[in-house]
Write a structure and sequence with these properties.
Layout (H helix, E strand, L loop, with lengths): L1 E4 L22 H5 L8 H22 L4 H34 L3 E4 L12 E2 L3 H19 L7 H24 L3 H11 L1 H6 L5 E3 L5 H4 L3 E3 L2 H20 L6 H23 L3 H28 L8 H18 L3 H7 L1 H14 L12 E3 L4 E3 L6 H9 L4 H26 L5
Antiparallel strand pairs: 1-2, 2-3, 4-5, 6-7
C-alpha cells in the first residue's frame, strides 16, 4: 500500500511566448527519478514452470479430455503466454507515463530508508487489465461461433470485468471513499447478472434433505442476489488483504492456479458435455489472468518496482468471481478465498466503524532493523506479525502466500473426503 501524492490542483501559469522556439527540457524531478528495476524473471519463470508442467501433464496425459476442448485450452494458453511477454514489455513504458501524471506513491513499509524516498509508479494494474481484455476478446475468434450458447455470457463476463477495471482506475485517480468503493462491484456485476441464463438452483447437502424436503431447491432471484454479493465480496476481499509488496498479486496467482487445477479435475472426472464446457469456460478466463498476473508479480515482488493500485485488485477480484459464478463452483471459490474471508471477518469492527479505523492499517516498520511489527489493527497481516513475531516484509509475504496455498489444499482435501456424502 502506498501513500500517493496527488497532483496539484493549482493551475500552472501560462508559459510566455518567446520568439525562439526551444525544445522541451526534462524537469529536475524527472532527471532525478531512478530507472525502473528490471523484472524478477529469474524468480517468476522457474516458479511458473513448477505449476505449468504438472498442469499440462494433467491436461494431455492424465485426464481423458475431449480433443476439441484440449485444443481450445491450448490455444488460450498460447495466447496467455503472449500476454505475459506483452505485459513485461509494457509495464516499463506505462510506468513512465503514470509518473509524468504524478500517479506515484512512496512505500510506507520502507519509510526512513533510501528505498522509502523513491517514487514508485502506481495504478499499473491498468496495463494488466487491458492486455487481459485483448486476449479474452481475440480468443472468441478461435473458440466461439456466432450462435454459441456461451457467447452471450462470455461477453457479459468481459463487460463486467471491463467495467470493474474502469471503476478501479477511477478510484486510483479520485480516491473514492470506502463506503462508495463497497458498492462499485455491484454496478460492475450488472452486465453479468442481466445476461445470466443458467440455473438458479442449488443442490441440498444429503444430510439436510430430510429437513428441507427436496434434493434440489430453486432460489430464483435470490440466487442472482447471491451472485451479486459474491462479486462484491471477491473484489473487496482482494483489495483489503493487502499492504505489503507482492501480496495482492501473489494471492491472485495462488487462487488462479487452484482454480485451474479444480476445473481440470472436474473436466476429467465428468462425462457431461455441458458440465465440461462450463469448467472449460472458466479456464479460458483464468489462464490469461494467471499469466498476466505473473508478469506483474515480476515487478511487484519485494522490493516492488511498481504498485498495482485498486485497478488491479478490483479487476482480479471480479475476474475470479465471474469464473466462479459461470463455472458453477462458487462454494469451492469461497473455500479458496478462506484467508480473505478470515481477513474480512477480522476487519469488520474497523470497517464498520465500531472501533477507530486509520487510513493505512499497516504494521510498523523499524528502519534500523528492517523488521515489521504488528499493530492492533484488524488485518491478517498484523495478526501474523503478532502471532509469529517480527519479520521482514518479504518473509511475511511468503508466509501469507503459503497460508493461501494451504487453504487451497484444504479445499481440495475437503472436496475429496466429502464426495458422495455431502452432495
Amino acid at each position: 500500500m502506498a501513500a500517493r501524492r496527488k497532483p496539484s490542483l493549482i493551475p500552472a501559469k501560462p508559459a510566455q511566448i518567446s520568439e525562439a522556439s526551444e525544445a522541451p527540457k526534462p524537469s529536475a524531478s524527472d532527471a532525478d527519478d531512478p530507472p525502473l528495476r528490471p523484472p524478477k524473471l529469474s524468480l517468476i519463470v522457474p516458479a511458473s514452470a513448477l505449476f505449468f508442467l504438472p498442469y499440462f501433464f494433467l491436461l494431455y496425459f492424465y485426464y481423458d479430455v475431449e480433443p476439441s476442448l484440449r485444443r481450445s485450452i491450448a490455444i488460450n494458453a498460447a495466447m496467455s503466454l503472449g500476454g505475459f511477454i506483452v505485459v513485461v514489455r509494457l509495464i516499463p513504458v506505462a510506468a513512465k507515463y503514470v509518473l509524468r501524471r504524478s500517479l506515484f506513491g512512496y512505500d510506507i513499509n520502507k519509510k526512513g530508508t533510501p528505498q522509502g524516498s523513491i517514487k514508485v509508479p502506481e495504478s499499473l494494474g491498468i496495463v494488466i487489465g487491458i492486455v487481459y481484455l485483448v486476449i479474452a476478446i481475440l480468443f472468441q475468434h478461435f473458440n466461439f461461433t456466432s450462435d454459441s450458447n456461451w457467447l452471450v455470457e462470455y461477453n457479459a463476463a468481459l463487460a463486467s470485468i471491463c467495467f470493474m477495471i474502469l471503476l478501479g482506475f477511477v478510484d486510483d485517480v479520485l480516491d473514492i471513499p470506502w463506503r462508495v468503493k463497497l458498492v462499485l462491484p455491484a454496478f460492475a456485476a450488472l452486465p453479468l447478472l442481466m445476461a445470466y441464463a443458467g440455473h438458479t438452483t442449488i443442490i441440498i447437502p444429503k444430510p439436510l434433505i430430510q429437513y428441507v424436503g427436496v434434493a434440489v431447491l430453486d432460489l430464483g432471484w435470490i440466487y442472482k442476489l447471491y451472485m451479486g454479493l459474491l462479486a462484491v465480496f471477491c473484489t473487496n476481499a482482494v483489495n483489503i488483504h493487502a499492504g505489503i509488496n507482492g501480496l495482492e498479486v501473489g494471492q491472485t496467482v495462488v487462487i488462479s492456479a487452484a482454480i485451474l487445477i479444480h476445473n481440470l479435475m472436474q473436466i476429467g472426472a465428468s462425462g457431461d458435455p455441458e458440465y465440461q464446457h462450463a469448467h472449460a469456460f472458466s479456464i479460458y478466463l483464468v489462464q490469461p489472468l494467471l499469466t498476466t498476473s505473473l508478469a506483474l508479480l515480476s515487478f511487484n515482488w519485494y522490493p516492488s518496482s511498481v504498485f498495482v493500485g485498486d485497478t488491479y485488485t478490483y479487476f482480479a477480484g471480479m475476474a475470479m468471481a465471474v469464473v466462479g459464478i459461470l463455472g458453477h463452483f462458487s462454494e469451492t471459490l469461497l473455500l479458496f478465498f478462506l484467508p480473505q474471508v478470515l481477513n474480512f471477518l477480522y476487519s469488520c469492527p474497523q470497517l464498520f466503524k465500531i472501533i477507530p479505523c486509520p487510513r493505512h492499517r499497516l504494521p510498523r516498520f523499524d528502519p534500523q532493523t528492517g523488521l515489521l511489527t504488528g499493530t492492533k489493527d484488524g488485518t491478517l497481516v498484523n495478526l501474523f506479525l503478532r502471532l509469529f513475531g517480527q519479520s521482514t516484509e518479504k518473509s511475511l509475504c511468503i508466509r501469507l502466500l503459503f497460508f493461501q496455498a494451504l487453504s487451497c489444499l484444504l479445499c481440495f482435501w475437503l472436496r475429496y473426503i466429502l464426495a458422495g456424502w455431502y452432495k
